[in-house]
Amino acid sequence: MPASFTSTGNGTDTVRFGVVTLFPDLVADVAGYGVLGRAVERGLVALDCENPREHATDPHRTVDDRPYGGGPGMVMKYEPSAAAIASLAARMPAGSPVVCLSPQGTRFDQATAERYAGLPGLVLLAGRYEGFDERLIVDAVDEELSLGDFVLSGGEIAAMAVIDAVTRLLPGVLGDAESAAQESFTTGLLDHPHYTRPEQVAGREVPAVLLSGDHAAIARWRHKQALGRSFLRRPDLVRRLNLNAEQRALLEEYLQESGKET
Ligand code: 9D3
Questions:
Q1: Do 119 and 95 contact (CB within 8 A), yes or no?
Q2: Residue 87 is part of which domain span?
Q3: What tens digit of pLDDT does each residue of 20-67 get?
Q4: In this structure, is residue 6 part of a structural domain?
Q5: Are 148 and 227 found together in one domain?
C-alpha cells in the first residue's frame, strides 16, 4: 500500500486511549457525546480506563496521602497508580507513550495532537489532589502536558480535551464537510465570522458581500476578516505567519475599515 493511503500507520486504523483515573465514569460519560461518541461506536477509537483505587491494597482503598515536608493538599500515592498503569499497559498496543496531564506540563497544541494521531495508542494519567508522587512521574511518564495557565480540579477534563482533539484528526472520523472546514484551522489564523438566517435580526444585517453570490469577493472578505481578527486578538499567531504582500494589504484594509491604525 502506498504511504499516501496509510492513515495512522498502526495498521488497524483504531487508536486506543487508556486513561488512569479515579473517576472512570466521568471519562466514559464525556466520551459518549458527539464526534467522539460516534468514533467510539464505530470502533475508530477505543477507550479503556483503569482506576488506581482498584489497586489499593489496604481496607480503606487509600490512593492519596499527606505530602512529605508538610503543607496543604494530598498527593496520589505511587503504588496504586503504578499498578493501574501496569494493568492498562497489558491491554495497550506496544509503543503507547504514557502522558501525564499536569499544570507543570508543556502546552498541548494542534502539533502535539497531530503527533499523537499517528500513534497506535496513548496512556493518559489524570491526577486529582496536588497530583502524583514525583517518583511515579520519573519512572512511568514519557511526557507531561498542560492545557494552559488556569487551575482545573484534576486531569480528567484535560485528558478528554486531548482525546477529543486527536480523535478529530483520525481518518474517517469527520465527514467531508467537517474535514474541509478543519483544514482552514491549519492556516494558522482565527476563523472569519459566521452568519446564518435570518438576514436581519435584532436590527442587525448580514454583511452584504455574503449575499452577493460573488464567491471570489466572499473568499477575499473572509480572509481579510480572519487576518484582521487574528492581528487584534492573537498577534502571536500573525507574527508566526510572515504575511505576504497581499495579506499585508488585506490587513491594512481591515484596520482602515475598523477605524484602527497600523
Ligand atoms: C490549587 C492547587 N495547586 C496548588 C498551587 C496546584 C494544582 C494542583 C493540581 C492545580 C491544579 C491541579 C489539577 N490540575 C490538573 O490536573 C491539570 C491542569 C490544570 O489545572 N490546568 C491546565 N492544564 C491541566 S492538565 C492537568
A1: yes
A2: 15-167
A3: 999 999 999 999 999 999 999 999 999 999 999 999 999 999 999 999
A4: no
A5: no
Instruction: Give the pLDDT confidence of 225-248 residue by residue, as tens digits.
Output: 999 999 999 999 999 999 999 999
Q: Does one domain contain both 158 and 30? A: yes
244 belongs to a structural domain: yes
Q: Exposure of 154 by Cβ count < 10 A (0-12 exposed, 13-18 middle, 19+ buried)?
A: middle
pTM: 0.95
Among 27, 102, 147, which is best to mutate for testing ligand 1, by the most ligand atoms less than 8 A from CB? 102
85/124 Cα distance (integer angstroms): 9
Quote the ligand 1 centre to 117 CA distance (angstroms): 25
Closest ligand 1 atom to the C-alpha of 152? 20
Query: On the CB side of 254, how many CA atoms lie within 13 Å of its CA?
Result: 20
Give me the pLDDT at residue 20, please: 99
Ligand 1 center to 152 CA (angstroms)? 5
Q: How far is the CA of 74 from the centre of ligand 1 (A)?
A: 13
